[in-house]
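Changelog excerpt

This revision adds worked examples to the README so contributors can see how folded entries look when concatenated. The first example is reproduced verbatim below.
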Amino acid sequence: MKKDVLITISGVQSDELKDSDKVEIVTSGSYYKKNNMHYLLYDEIEEGQDRITKNIAKFDTEGFHIIKSGSINANMSFEQNKRSISNYITPYGSFLVGVDASKIDITENDESIKVDIEYSLDLNYEHLADCQLHMDIQQRDGMENFSLN
């Protein structure tokens, strides 16, 4: 059964010079849990554009996987101490993106789920940044009997 949720995604990328870029988006989405796997569906709208990217996030205590389709196309996996490489296709070109997650922490209660990921990011096999991703998934107000179990 799908549940309406409010999703806050914030991220920080720090390069070797310790310069940091921070990003935050807030969007609504749908959540469900099946066979101990969490599923999250939401759309991202590119700032200043009409382009939409649909996202499907699938996660459990072992890893976090996201499939992007639309303006951006990618299939990325974050698994602790495991490197993954994927094609990241944008309107501006295609890139090889590598991620090496050093920490994945998922905390859940009856009303929310918090996902924290720390990872190294490289672009076309060159280290780009050390990153932190925080996702806060909250039940929408006015919902009754919301359960993540």
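The second example, added in the same revision:
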Amino acid sequence: MGKPRQTLKTLRAIALEHANVAHPDLASMARDLGQVVHHNSSAMATRLARLHQRGHGLGRWLLAQRTQVPVSVMVMAWPANHCTPVHDHAGLWGLELTLVGAVEVQSWRHDPDSGNLHPLGRDWLGPGDGTWFEGDQNHVHRCRNLSQHEAALTLHVYGGELTRYLAYEQAGASGIWTTQPQQVAVVERLHA
């Protein structure tokens, strides 16, 4: 299973199989995806190197999408030291797994009544490590590439098509969080 193209096909197949139910076991999905990445990390780096060389910004490539038992699978390229705004996933469940490099994921719970964000924790992910969130409308997080010099690549599996989401920004000294609607831009379909 060391061929890079075959590795992407395997990751796609694992994600689609686990997501064959409305509420998949995300821990099992992360474990199975992570095992493949751990065994093929250098092949992944070689196969996906072109993705982070195409541009200097954050890039998303669609690997698979299905509407019956909705799921989408994407590969994302993170420029060195790139950090997303705090954002939600429009109530979808999701799993994020590092393919190349290292990322930090910091999570909060949004209180819809007060608008405040309450810290939930922080995860540091290397190749094959994953984190996930259930379909909670009030889960928000921020992701950051930990390297100052190298791009990172991640695999994202969502319980549907993520086309829009909310970005959260803290307004000045008042500490009040405001939201701004965002639209997801996909570079292109990635063929495995």
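Reviewer comment on example two: The chain has one domain: 4-189. The mean pLDDT is 90.
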